[in-house]
Amino acid sequence: MQASNESGSQASSNPKRLNVMPTHTNPKRLNVMPTHTNPKRLNVMPTHTNPKRLNVMPTHPPSRPLGPSGVANGGMACIAYLCFLAVAAVPAEAKPLLVGAAVSLTEPLQALAPSFAAALKVPAPSFNFAASGVLQQQIQKGAPIDVFVSAGDKQMDRLEKAGLLVAGSRRVIAGNQLVLVVPSRSPLHSLRFQGLDSMAIRRIAIGDSSVPAGDYGRQTLAYYGLSEAVKAKLVPLGSVRAVANAVAAGDVDAGIVYKSDAQTVPNLRIVAGAPEASHTPIRYSAAVIAASRQPNVASAYLGSLTTAQASQVFRRYGLLPLPAAAKR
């Protein structure tokens, strides 16, 4: 297990080839670019042999049905209307949007992509899933990302302050909960946050400084007065999904993750939830990047993430849809 990054592979040595990760890849093995890699070389696998053309593999259909009617049917009219308002004219040969999104959104965003593409008659978005801090750095260094979806406000605030977001495009799309997890076969069924300083707990996985879930986790540890007591036990990892996988594999005794990841990754048991007062609110915010070559399509994509149908999908994957009043 690597504790420094969530990357499963390195970018291609050819600087003209953008390594874009196919969206149908196993979400447990995310090909995320390490922070020391050139930010303009995203791990998205090209499907064309010409290194100057970025032909990204289309989004894979969701592995689970979206319900009796599904977003692709029942939500089509709503999404199409939003897209019509946002996009006066879509280029005849529109290229896929590149969405840089927090790893914890892998499943819901992939599930929503086909309905957006069908409504607007454009290619389904391609995704670069990584830690929000890693994505922030990539965007600051010129990565060709059209839409950024962050699991923390800090990363979005930095980009907004730097003038790298389209003014007025930022909005909150969902929330999440922080939980303490152990391996499903672990005897530590009664473990609580207050017990993490116990001698029985030797290793605790947590997101590193680039991972918002890690920030929330450290705030919760401080809330319980455990920061110093468990400091030597912490195993920082490059994404919240990496934390969940490490716990599920039994490589650590416990981990702090989002509830959505705990529901998605098998072989995990939730033993405690962090009180809301123990950390700043967990909010997923999204915005169009100022350098996007398709700002109208990108704006329409953001609109599709705030529909009632999108909220249903977020809820299905363990996230918390936010009331309209909470959306910026």
What is shown here, in short?
By secondary structure, the protein is α/β, with parallel strands linked by helices.
Describe this structure in words.
The protein is of the alpha/beta class and 328 residues long. It folds into two domains: 1-175 and 282-328, 3-Layer(aba) Sandwich (D-Maltodextrin-Binding Protein, domain 2), CATH 3.40.190.10; 178-278, 3-Layer(aba) Sandwich (D-Maltodextrin-Binding Protein, domain 2). Helix content is 29%, strand content 15%. The chain has helices at residues 71-74, 76-86, 106-120, 132-140, 153-161, 212-223, 240-248, 259-264, 295-304, 308-316, and strands at residues 98-102, 126-130, 147-150, 171-175, 178-183, 204-207, 234-237, 254-258, 268-273, 283-288. It has a five-stranded mixed β-sheet. Helix 2 runs antiparallel to helix 9 (295-304). The longest helix has 15 residues, at 106-120. It is elongated and about 60 Å long. The model is unreliable at 1-89 (pLDDT under 50).
Layout of strands and helices, then pairs:
Blueprint: H1 71-74, H2 76-86, E1 98-102, H3 106-120, E2 126-130, H4 132-140, E3 147-150, H5 153-161, E4 171-175, E5 178-183, E6 204-207, H6 212-223, E7 234-237, H7 240-248, E8 254-258, H8 259-264, E9 268-273, E10 283-288, H9 295-304, H10 308-316
Parallel strand pairs: 1-2, 1-3, 6-7, 6-8
Antiparallel strand pairs: 3-10, 4-10, 5-8, 5-9
Helix pairs in contact: 2-3, 2-9, 4-5
Give me some keywords for this one:
328 residues, alpha/beta, D-Maltodextrin-Binding Protein, domain 2, 2 domains, 10 strands, disordered N terminus
